[in-house]
Amino acid sequence: MVTTPATAAAVASPSTSSSPRLPGCRFLPPSPADTRCRLPPQRWRAHLRVARQVAVGSDVSSSPDVSAEEAAAASKVGKRVRVTAPVRVHHVAKATGLDLRGMEGVVKQYVGVWKGKRITASLPYKVEFEIKLDGQEKPIRFFAHLREQEFEIVGDE
Question: Residue 26 pLDDT more than 70?
Answer without folding.
Answer: no
